Amino acid sequence: MSFPRRRKAPNTQKSEPHEIDGENEDDKKRNPKTNLRKDKRWSCMDSCCWFIGCICSIWWFFLFLYNAMPASFPQYVTEAITGPLPDHPGVKLLKEGLKVKHPVVFVPGIVTGGLELWEGHQCAEGLFRKRLWGGSFGELYKRPLCWVEHISLDNETGLDPSGIRLRPVSGLVAADYFAAGYFVWAVLIANLARIGYEEKTMYMAAYDWRLSFQNTEVRDQTLSRIKSNIELMVATNGGKKVVVIPHSMGVLYFLHFMKWVEAPAPMGGGGGLDWCTKHIKAVMNIGAPFLGVPKAVAGLFSMEAKDVAIARAFAPGVLDKDVFGLQTFQHMMRMTRTWDSTMSMIPKGGDTIWGGLDWSPEGDFDCSAKKLKNNDTQTADQSGKGTLGTTKRVNYGRIISFGKDVSDIHSFEIKRVDFQGAVKGNNLINTTKCDAWTEYQEMGIEGVKAVADYKVYTAGSILDLLHYVAPKLMARGDAHFSHGIADNLDDPKYEHHKYWSNPLETKLPNAPDMEIYTMYGVGVPTERAYVYKLTPAAECYIPFQIDASAEGGSENPCLKGGVFSVDGDETVPILSAGFMCAKGWRGTTRFNPSGIRTYIREYDHAPPANLLEGRGTQSGAHVDIMGNFALIEDVIRVAAGATGEDLGGDRVYSDIYKWSEKIKLQL
């Protein structure tokens, strides 16, 4: 695929340096070396775009063939292999006589909601109201630098860059599918429709997931719109309260909303302290990162996760800038570090929750233990069955360790040098050769060395690390998010919106009749800690990288490819998803003064039996769980009027109770 170039600009108008076209003729004459380098980059980009285009074309071709089949064909083939399939939850519950009762509100998580262009620069000509995020992602491989420029926010304000406006897509289509053939909310929506739900009883609370939560109100009045829509749904459905279903980061967003709606204007919505009890029956949180996720740390620190580290191990250099000349990771880091919402996912509670140098709540987890295979509510363990094995204890509290040996030895053997007093040295490279600026370019060799010499970082020191390596990002983040534990929740400072999405620094609403569920998958290896190394110095490089060569072997099977795994849903560790409902909010506590009833519903992961099952109906993975039949059935029953007790109370497969008891938190 050839990358489209724009026509040469008229002599009266110079091309903007940030646009993705080439230089004008005068610039080419003045800068022949720079022009040669850019021509090489465009050649590499043409090749890269052609390759990505081929992949996308193949994907669309197979999708066309699949959609061209009779609707019953995949089911017919599957039943011929595995026998009759069970009814979908909506069909099953319709036969039981369940009908529409409570309106439902969906709150999507990070990256799953579509964003469309309302105003853009010249390179985005012809894309008015086209999706730049979600859908086919066609513009990503047609004009990648233009796409990055428009998806990024302003690095100083965290709001729109000059001349660019991306806005969330509205309606159920905002997040029913992330991309063609990849469902998010679509399966749940379809099953609710089976018992009579439609758009007047379903509402997608779409928001710009890049922004800090309070800025969604400042820029778009999104929180006000959610408040008005919920009030309208209650009023037009006979006064029946809504059932709210947030997913992933949407859980934190809705926590923020519940405090915002109670708080007086201008900071809050002015709904009063009884708004939630008047309008909300239940909040059914799916894949909730209540206490953050270590995965967010790796993403902010080095733009990596387990999959990236594994890919680098199998094909060294393929993902690095030297192959395509695109500096892909640098562009992605620059882009994502403008998204303030990512800071809501940094682990909360420090060492008290996540563990210190020599302990962690999940330290006795056995990665080699066989898990339960039954996802039946009638046989699930209600008390949590231990999985203590004979493998070596893992120091999960060391979220980042520089070197495999550092992750393993006792803390008194680690020689650390405090990095915070280190003076950032001269620039690492000639920044004029960089396509994408990152804050690492200002650290200097001494700054990079100081970070590595500190050796190990726990949840208590991760914030200091991020302040050091990403000061602009964290300066914005400090104004919108907090990650600590409140000493006194009656302190007036906790009335500020920066605390509202942290369950350890805020109180639940005064709504004793409301129910809160945490619903998440278990049995999927989930990122918990990382082994890092320094990368060889190069132009425009990211100096830190997960050490994919670090393996635990049979002695420590939790360490693979530089990543320590624990039980969870592939993204959110059980500790983050389950602790608040297992202990922090259980009963009447200082975090739950009105005694809102809480329920834990775990879904033991079972992969699809064959390819025709797609992503499976018993998946516990973070997004695929949205198609889990047992979860969908739980949601429909509550929407139709059931309570947590009607569902059978807690359903627990993991060690969440045991791990929660190890956390010494004042309640």
TrEMBL record:
Identify its membrane topology class: Single-pass membrane protein
Catalysed conversion reaction:
a glycerophospholipid + a 1,2-diacyl-sn-glycerol = a monoacylglycerophospholipid + a triacyl-sn-glycerol
Q: Which Pfam families match?
A: LCAT (PF02450)
Q: Which GO terms describe its cellular component?
A: membrane
- Composition bias (Basic and acidic residues) maps to 15-29
Keyword terms of this UniProt record:
Acyltransferase, Membrane, Transferase, Transmembrane, Transmembrane helix
Protein name in UniProt: phospholipid:diacylglycerol acyltransferase
Q: Could you list the residue ranges that cross the membrane?
A: 47-66
Give the protein family.
Answer: Belongs to the AB hydrolase superfamily. Lipase family.
Species lineage, top-down? Eukaryota, Viridiplantae, Streptophyta, Embryophyta, Tracheophyta
Q: What InterPro entries has UniProt attached to this entry?
A: AB_hydrolase_fold (IPR029058), LACT/PDAT_acylTrfase (IPR003386)
Under the heading PANTHER family, the entry gives: LECITHIN-CHOLESTEROL ACYLTRANSFERASE-RELATED
Q: Which GO terms describe its molecular function?
A: O-acyltransferase activity; phospholipid:diacylglycerol acyltransferase activity
Q: What is one GO biological process annotated to this record?
A: triglyceride biosynthetic process
Any keyword Transmembrane helix? Answer: yes
User: Where found, per UniProt?
Assistant: Membrane
Extract the ranges annotated as region (Disordered).
Answer: 1-34
Tell me which EC number(s) this protein carries. Answer: 2.3.1.158
Q: Membrane among the record's keywords?
A: yes
Task: Give the range the annotation lists for the signal sequence.
Answer: none
Where it mainly occurs, coarsely classed, is: membrane
